[in-house]
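note to self: dont lose this again. the chain is below, predicted strucutre after it. 340 aa total, dont forget to put it in the shared folder this time
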Amino acid sequence: MLFEPIKIGNLELKNRIIAEPIVSNSGGPDGAPSKKSLEIYSEYAHSGVGMVVLEQHAVHPWGRNKLSQFRLYQDSNAAALLPLTDVFAKSGIPVVAQLNFSGAGASGKELLEEKDFRLVSPSGLRNPRDLINADSKILDASEIPEIVEAFADAARRAVMIAKYTGGVQIYACHGYLLGQFLSPLTNQRDDRYGGDIKNRARILLEVTEAVRAAVPNALVSVRLGASDQMPGRPEKGLTLKESTWVANELVSLGVDWIGISGNHCIYGIGEDDNDTAYFSPYASAIREALGDNKVPIDCAGGIRSAKKAEDILKNRVCDLVGIGRPLINDKQFVHCMKNE
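---
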């Protein structure tokens, strides 16, 4: 099954392998791709994957993760990305722009010196994994529509100007802003954006609806943090039951596929990733719960062999297999999987 084609929306992938987004730290200080960026992603374009999700793009000046991060909050940012997407156009591999607002999940302390940057979060609380070591400002409810609009505008730029042929992915996991809103560990608001999961998910659902409307003919996906804890551990914070409800809402808003990962558990850092497919229990539960509303589910994390990938596909854990860190070290990894 791994090397069978699959159709997502109006796009057919040559196989079921997705190159998951990994921050390359290769952009320039203005967020434009560098010569190093083009070298890295040229290798991805010829790696044998069915689709590439390209590392997070900032949708707003406040939402940056690092200075070197790619950006989509101005038309000029999008135009600067054309040499990068051209690499994929020439190879015929669909490429997706991952859209992000980092909030208190930012990691570049140098951003605090930038005049157009503000460190913001749902409740002014530090993330469980605090990389920037600084206090954040609580977002006022009146500022949230600006962030929603920023995601929609970034999606439009990604598709219309930067020519991302695979559409866009909304980043709602790994402790970044949308994941901070989803989690009661970092969202203790008492307004319409805090409280039960329907309120904590409100900004994500508003973003998804706005992005879907902005790019009606492009693929839209969400990478969803399924829980604040790793599978098999007592749940504290965002739970699988809550994220299953969110997944159903996302499908009703017209997303084309959903990627499953962790939220504040930080995608398994420190976990045994020796071919364990550690997020497969979450992917399987959400795929089953979607039932007749099923859209393709992408499972990533700790998948290190063709056999493991085949197993989770055949066992209906997921429809797409995400490969991340192995491709960093070996761009021939997928070709080797084919020969296993």
